[in-house]
Design brief:
Helix content: over 70%
Number of helices: 13
CATH class of the largest domain: Mainly Alpha
CATH architecture of the largest domain: Orthogonal Bundle
CATH superfamily of the largest domain: MetI-like
Distance between the termini: 7 Å
Length: about 325
């Protein structure tokens, strides 16, 4: 497994380099001059050019790219064009907010999705099955932004149960949890729909296997059969969709953090794009890319724990 992990990490390097290189090119093609945005429209041409020299933006594009790539691969992500502070420090400051939101959303989505999918499969062809499938279809089709707005209107503005914006008071755990609930629920429900559909189809496939009929013939209760035999053997595709959902939540956090005015990596990315802060955008995207690579690796490694027959060479 260690050999396989090292192999996956090495083969992921070209993917990582490709992603950050694409972002480097796109940011240079986007209209707007970072120096002009910082100094303002009334700044003189000389002042703008002087600031561009200080930022290194007047260097040849190939030299900028090589310096960026060498720095990125050696762990030096550079300094923000806006604040002149290390961009990695700013990323690490907001990562806990995005991590908390993503893990909370994943918890909501997994519990609701697995539970609803299991119930739907066990009640196949009955009204409850159609009801769950209908809600799952709506959940897949509904954008996170729309769902978040509905939750804000109902539970924040009308009922006043949860705060509408912010991440809660520093040091107040209960206030932090209240501020986290709505955005995490909005993020989790969209993934719950996908997990529900995958759980239903996977469980239905396992229910038709011979070993399940044998377990029923032995007189095992439905609870034991489902939890010990059916769900365990159905988990590999479910874990796969959960891993993909977590990556989707990391990217979906951009919309959620903006909608709920929460600090986080997604909101930092949006603000940096508006300011044409190239280095900050590149650092944020690099962290997203690394997160996707690590999540996919962990999901693949979890297969061996779920099915001992799987071997990594």
């Amino acid at each position: 497994m260690l050999k396989y992990s090292l192999y996956r990490i090495v083969t992921s390097i070209p993917t990582f380099v490709g992603v950050v290189s694409l972002v480097f090119i796109i940011m240079r093609l986007v209209p707007g001059d970072p120096a002009l945005l910082i100094l303002g429209e009334d700044a003189s041409r000389e002042a703008v050019e002087q600031l561009r020299d200080q930022m290194g933006l007047n260097e040849p594009l190939l030299k900028q790219y090589v310096d960026f790539l060498v720095g990125m691969l050696t762990g030096d992500f550079g300094r923000s064009l806006r604040t002149n502070q290390p961009v990695l420090a700013e990323v690490m400051r907001v990562v806990p907010y995005t991590a908390a939101l993503s893990f909370a959303g994943l918890a909501f989505g997994s519990v609701i999705g697995i539970g609803a999918g299991l119930v739907s499969a066990l009640r196949r062809g009955r009204p409850l099955d159609y009801l769950v499938s209908g809600f799952a279809t709506i959940g897949v089709a509904m954008p996170i932004f729309t769902l978040g707005m509905i939750l804000l209107i109902v539970f924040s503005y009308n009922l006043g149960w949860f705060p509408a914006i912010g991440a809660g008071t520093e040091g107040d755990v209960l206030d932090r949890l209240r501020a986290l609930t709505l955005p995490a629920f909005a993020l989790g429900l969209s993934s719950a729909a996908l997990i529900t559909r995958m759980t239903r189809s996977s469980v239905l496939e396992i229910l038709g296997q011979d070993f399940v009929r044998t377990a029923n013939a032995k007189g095992l209760s439905q609870r034991v059969t489902v939890l010990k035999h059916v769900l365990k053997n159905a988990m590999i595709p479910i874990v796969t969709i959960i891993g993909l959902s977590f990556g989707r939540m990391m990217s979906g956090s951009t919309i959620t953090e903006t909608l709920f005015v929460r600090p986080g990596l997604g909101r930092l990315l949006i603000d940096s794009m508006y300011a044409r802060d190239y280095t900050q955008v590149e650092a944020a995207v690099a962290f997203f890319a690394i997160s996707f690579i690590v999540i996919n690796l962990l999901v693949d490694l979890s297969y061996a724990a779920l099915d001992p027959r799987i071997q990594y060479g």
